[in-house]
């Protein structure tokens, strides 16, 4: 048990290096192994990728630390190292206390076991007795709101149900450190609000909270300190306000540099060659169109989908548009030229960026900051008002008032 104010987490010179390349990855099936052998020349060809490099910091007990950064910055990798999901390549981690975590949807629970059985399994893994788990059981069930489904195997849960139960287990079992990745975005708004309140309560009660998120407003509301990761390196650590300002300052320069990156995140089997819009200036409420091009790939087997994210200048994702959601998949043997059209995009005035992703089961290519555009300060409403006077909310909405 640590004393309030003492370091609950100490990290020194932490690094994680992955080998990228067909022979650097272990095939999961005999068929995959055969395909890999046929494609190989008999020599191991791979490149080294530093997901984290020389990261050092301490977190006092009772601190709520926000971890921010662009996709691929190393945030989730850091949490996986701290929660012992994977081992570091180099460096040292000291944890004073047990860790409860909620990382990716699908991790932490046994899919064949029921919700109830998984509650007891997680408690046992943390070293808790059955009596200790039973003392917390009713709180876990009530907070999750899925009591009717506790006798159902979790493999039949929706992602939202899974997150509800997984967060409730992590938050209510007796651990000194609570690590939460951004999977809370899967839940509904009310559950997100209750979860943030629960994490704040945990920190005030002396537990140490690690929280990864792209939602800067949530980080500001919950955290007492923060750090910024950029391409595997710790570039800023300090107050929440200072960290978020450093993130905003780096956002534009990083986005523009990505267009020249030869080693963008992804396995490289297919790469976007072009992402563009007809105009860099749009009005709120207009349709926008994003064109993209992908050359053929001889390496890739199976169709893929494209996902476009629209980000505001705070780094928050305003919209995610996956081609798979509208039944559009692409054949890697063909040269694919496509267009995403977003209807009536009621964005607030400001600068926005487009992130473009190519995906199968994982990410094939991630071109962050592929395009930048500006929404002009014209309100999409019939009556005039200064746009600066409409300061609340992330987007405009199409509304009207009338008699009830």
UniProtKB/TrEMBL annotation:
Residues 36-256 form the ABC transporter domain. Keywords: ATP-binding, Nucleotide-binding, Transport. InterPro entries: AAA+_ATPase (IPR003593), ABC_transporter-like_ATP-bd (IPR003439), ABC_transpr_TagH-like (IPR015860), Bact_Polysacc_Export_ATP-bd (IPR050683), P-loop_NTPase (IPR027417), Wzt_C (IPR029439). It comes from the Bacteria. SMART domains: AAA (SM00382). SUPFAM superfamilies: P-loop containing nucleoside triphosphate hydrolases. The keyword Transport applies. PROSITE patterns: ABC_TRANSPORTER_2 (PS50893). GO terms for molecular function: ABC-type transporter activity; ATP binding; ATP hydrolysis activity. GO terms for cellular component: membrane. Belongs to the ABC transporter superfamily. This is Lipopolysaccharide transport system ATP-binding protein. It comes from Microbacterium immunditiarum. The lineage of its organism: Bacteria, Bacillati, Actinomycetota, Actinomycetes, Micrococcales.
């Amino acid at each position: 048990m640590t004393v309030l104010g003492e370091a609950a987490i100490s990290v020194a010179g932490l690094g994680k290096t992955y080998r990228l390349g067909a022979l650097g990855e272990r095939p999961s099936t005999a068929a995959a192994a055969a395909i890999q052998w046929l494609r190989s020349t008999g020599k191991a060809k791979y490149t080294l990728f530093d997901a984290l490099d020389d990261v050092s910091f301490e977190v006092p007990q009772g601190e709520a630390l926000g971890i921010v950064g662009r996709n691929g910055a190393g945030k989730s990798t850091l949490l996986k190292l701290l929660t012992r999901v994977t081992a570091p390549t180099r460096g040292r981690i000291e944890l004073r206390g047990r860790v409860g975590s909620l990382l990716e949807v699908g991790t932490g629970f046994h899919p064949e076991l029921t919700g109830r059985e998984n509650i007891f399994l997680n408690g046992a893994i943390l070293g808790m007795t059955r009596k200790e788990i039973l003392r917390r059981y009713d709180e876990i069930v009530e907070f999750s709101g899925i009591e009717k489904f506790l006798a159902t195997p979790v493999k039949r849960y929706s992602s939202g149900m899974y997150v509800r139960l997984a967060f409730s287990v992590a938050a209510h079992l007796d651990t000194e450190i609570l690590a939460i990745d951004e999977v809370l975005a899967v839940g509904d708004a009310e559950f997100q609000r209750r979860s943030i309140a629960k994490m704040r309560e945990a920190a005030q009660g002396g537990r140490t909270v690690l929280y990864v998120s792209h939602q800067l407003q949530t980080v500001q509301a919950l955290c007492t300190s923060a750090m910024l990761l950029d391409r595997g390196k710790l570039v800023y650590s300090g107050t929440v306000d200072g960290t978020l300002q450093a993130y905003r300052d780096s956002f534009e320069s990083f986005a523009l540099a990505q267009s020249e990156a030869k080693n963008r995140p992804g396995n490289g089997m297919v790469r976007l060659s072009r992402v563009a819009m007809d105009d860099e200036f749009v009005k709120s409420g207009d349709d926008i169109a994003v064109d993209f091009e992908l050359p053929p790939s001889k390496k890739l087997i199976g169709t893929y989908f494209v996902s476009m994210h629209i980000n505001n200048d705070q780094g928050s994702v305003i919209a995610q548009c996956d081609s798979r959601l509208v039944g559009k998949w692409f054949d890697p043997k063909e040269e694919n030229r496509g267009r995403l059209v977003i209807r009536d995009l009621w964005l607030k005035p400001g600068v926005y960026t487009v992130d473009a992703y190519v995906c199968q089961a994982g990410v094939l290519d991630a071109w962050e900051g592929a395009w930048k555009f500006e929404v002009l300060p014209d309100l999409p409403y019939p009556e005039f008002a200064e746009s600066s006077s409409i300061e609340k909310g992330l987007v405009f909405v199409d509304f009207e008032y009338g008699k009830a």
